[in-house]
Amino acid sequence: MLRIINMRVLLDNETSLNKLAAKKLKVPPQAVLEVVIIRRALDARRKNNISFVYTLDVKLAIPEGQVLSRLKGDKDISIAKEYVPEVIVQGENTLEHPPVVIGFGPAGMLAALILAQHGYKPILLERGRNIEQRTKDVSRFWQTGQFDPISNVQFGEGGAGTFSDGKLTTRVNDPLMRQVLDILIKAGAPEEIAYLHKPHIGTDKLREVVKSIRQEIIALGGRVEFEAKVTAIDEKEGKLKGIVVNGTTYIPCCTALLAIGHSARDTYEMLHKQGVAMEAKAFSIGVRIEHPQEVIDTSQYGISAGHPQLKAADYALVYHAKDIGRTAYSFCMCPGGLVVAAASETGGVVTNGMSLYNRASGVANSALVVNVTPEDFGGGVLEGINFQRKYEQLAFVCGGSNYHAPLQTVGDFLAGTTGSTTFATKPSYKPGVLAADLRQCLPAFVTNTLAQALPEFERKIKGFASPDAVMIGVETRTSAPVRVLRGSDFQSLNIKGLYPIGEGAGYAGGIMSAALDGLNSAISIIKNSKV
């Protein structure tokens, strides 16, 4: 096949890709047998001339060399390189016990699946509930305010990302990315995630994907247990011997993948108490901001906003407050989504963003957060957790102590007032909101940085700092507050056999990077052991 890169197609061009490829290759349309989209990105830099930019693989009925010679060295056309998955060969050391995977988020899920596919029959332990029951528990919390510390947006099958936008973008350049996408597609994700520049699944489709992967793990001989929290680890002379579940059940194991997610605070405390090598790390906190989706679409697409070929627009904003020495930025932007209650502890309010696959809510939201360093909370290994918890509990009080979230319009926030009831869009957070001063539930360095950033963001997106735009607090779970230290072999620095992986271990920042980390760790185990 021949590969065409940088093929630009204007928004209103209705010509088929087969015909466009034939024209680019200077062959008759009937010579094109197949066209495969490898990548599609949107170029909206020129609002009056928006286009899609494609990478295509084209199968021809005529010799490829003949076509290439006629094109006289066109740098955008070459022989396509066939994707060949790596053949993983098991190592020499026999595992005495099945590997245990702790946590059913993206890292644990992909690790368990690969291990199961290679005959290791892993035991997968998840402290929350399965996705069917978890969905009901979360819905009840959002509708009634009845919080369940076992089953919520942070804990349960699929991890925190299951109640998010399902974004699959990542800055990690890993050759296994294609394999992760293929796994998700096989499990029911839309096929377009294989080629879109900014792919997403949506929480509605992601739930089905998670369930399908669980079923495959079980079908391959793996075991999945829910409401199974690891409460202790057993190690001797720096080697893992077993783990304790729910304070009573002992599971002997010499290999355990620790994929606990960024909100397993009691597990962090247990690991630290037992001497597992850890360190504090930076994260960010702030608020969620909501706008009518049409405000973002108009800013990003101009006169083309509303075009049927264009999806709900996103944005990425950054502001450096040099006098304060802080950075404010948008995070986890959810086009056509909603702000959701994401608490994992009694007496705390936490916000997050979520979108369904169709992103059709008419409301755009993102986190606006400011960087926090270990120096801000004293540098102790677990002090970042206490820092997060402090502001979540303050937000709980500011919201009325019933899991309603504190809300303030941008106009009130910048003026230092509260109580406005005219909103650009109806607040989407459930179970409810209460007008409050967000300065009462966030550090001054965060609110001062946001106050500087908002007018700057308005210059980039007209209407972003509209006085009636809604801000909801607080967003605290942008990333793990600790890192569980490991070596190049993915194993803990001081306990061999323990593999800290994913977001919770401090080595990933989203669904895709966590999945890749889990996949790579499992491959490392396979290459060094056998069953």
From TrEMBL:
What InterPro entries does this protein's entry cite?
FAD-binding_protein (IPR028348), FAD-depend_C (IPR049516), FAD/NAD-bd_sf (IPR036188)
Q: Where is the FAD-dependent protein C-terminal domain?
A: 282-478
Q: What are the coiled-coil residue ranges? A: none
Q: State the Pfam families in the record.
A: FAD-depend_C
Check the record and name the PANTHER family matching this protein: FAD/NAD(P)-BINDING OXIDOREDUCTASE, FAD_NAD(P)-BINDING OXIDOREDUCTASE FAMILY PROTEIN
Q: What is this protein called?
A: FAD-dependent protein C-terminal domain-containing protein
